[in-house]
Amino acid sequence: MTTDEHARMMSANQANWDARTPVHLASRFYGLDQDLDPARWFASFEWDDLGELAGRDVLHLQCHLGTETIAFAQRGARAVGLDFSAASVAAANGIARRAGLDVTYVQANVYDAVEALDRRRFDVVYTGKGALCYLPDLDRWAGVVAQLLRPGGRLYIVEFHPLLNSLGPKPGPGEGPELLLRHDYLGGSGAVHRDATHTYTDGPAVEGATDSYEWMHGISEVVNALVQNGLTIRHLTESDELPWPRWPQMARTPSGWWRLPEPRIPLLYGLLATC
Asked: Which positions fall inside the Methyltransferase type domain (predicted)?
């Protein structure tokens, strides 16, 4: 697939996320009309891997509404969020302002982040929870991350496990409740096109741009892209919990997150790499 085709698909994704933003702002899923609690989107192992953030420069790539970005600012970081959706960046600015927090948000495609951020470097780059699937080229992405990190800086990815992405979120017509493999685990088969009027949150239908494109990326693809761009893998965690109940049979855990009763499979992973 050509660079022009990738650019066209990412432009469609950008329009789609602009259209999603007002639905997400009003959703119960994000709960932004309640007390802001961005820490609920983090697993405990994330904070262990991230370490002390006070006084550090932290960049959150593909930040959408900036919920996790705000959590970094609450922990004393100089937090910056970057997203390609103008609507998301405007919403994130409003959320941070209402929370009384000093967070900088920048609108840019992640592949253009180095120039958009004036070649600034960071102690920590954070990304994930539904971000990498919107990137067609992980090698190019890893090269951008390497340029964004200071020597010794940390990249932290917390992403939905490729196995989770391979499972359908709901049964097909005439099927039972069993979890079935519906999509590739590994990448290489090109983009998955979706035309969906509803997003992963509650709320009304998305108006306007409903087309989006996703790319599958196995863990080996992520690891190899980082290693080939000079980063060192320090730690990998696989978790069987999610911050919301993707399937009806999931049960609440003591952490407040959700787990399948059986089988016990990885649903989320955390990967720490250093520059």
From this structure: 59-155
Element (H, E) at 87: helix 86-99
Each domain of the chain, given as residue ranges in start order, spans: 3-170+179-245+266-274
The DSSP-derived string for 155-195 is EEEEEE-HHHHHB-SSPPTT--S---B-S-SSS-S-PEEEE
pTM, 2 dp = 0.94
List, for residues 33-69, the tens digit of each pLDDT value.
777 788 889 999 999 999 999 999 999 999 999 999 9
Terminal CA-to-CA distance of the chain, rounded, Å? Answer: 30
In CATH, which of 3.50.50.60, 3.40.190.10, 3.30.70.80, 3.40.50.150 is domain 3-170+179-245+266-274?
A: 3.40.50.150
